[in-house]
Amino acid sequence: MPPKRFEDPLPRRDFLGIAAMGSVVVTMSTALIGVLRLPKPAALPESASRFKIGFPDEFPPETHRKIEDRNVWIFRDALGFYAFSAICTHLGCVVTENDRVDSGGRVLSGPAPRGLDWLELSLAVDGSLMVDAGKTVNPGSRFNV
């Protein structure tokens, strides 16, 4: 009796056909997932850069207040109102009252390359103060009501 010959369980042509169909299925599945994700935005919208902080009489002269949820410092002195960002210009950390920054946003010591950004103030239609965190002004600028 001649030796028994082992046959391939899957011929080469059949294997290549199955591999090609598998590639088509994977490609179409990936494309379908991409199409299904289209209605959902990849980047979420940022909060508005303009926001109200309260009425001018809520800020007594010679006082300051931090707006925690917006990372902004608001000051009122004899010359008027001013605001600056509480985001450090070095690494973007949030500046606290105990950090080495003076009431003008200048860095007293540390690695920050420049002082904090001063932000534009304006009055809303209802008479409340508005900060525009998207617009900077020259340090020392004041807003008078």
Summarize the helices and strands and which ones pair or pack.
Elements: H1 12-37, E1 50-54, E2 63-67, E3 72-77, E4 80-85, E5 118-123, E6 129-137
Antiparallel strand pairs: 1-6, 2-3, 3-4, 4-5, 5-6
Helix coverage percent: 10-25%
- Please write the string of helix (H) and strand (E) elements: HEEEEEE
Quaternary structure state of the chains depicted: single chain
Rg, Cα atoms, Å: 31 Å
In terms of DSSP E residues, the strand content is 25-35%
Care to count the β-strands? 6
Instruction: Outline the biggest β-sheet.
Output: 6 strands, antiparallel
Question: How would you describe this protein?
Answer:
This protein has 1 helix and 6 strands. A 6-stranded antiparallel sheet has the order 1-6-5-4-3-2, with no helix packed on it. It has 145 residues and is of the alpha+beta class. The protein starts with 11 loop residues before the first helix and ends in an 8-residue tail after the last strand. 14% of the residues are buried.
Gist?
The chain is of the alpha+beta class and 145 residues long. The protein has one helix spanning 12-37; strands spanning 50-54, 63-67, 72-77, 80-85, 118-123, 129-137.
Question: Any descriptors?
Answer:
1 helix, 145 residues, elongated, alpha+beta, single chain
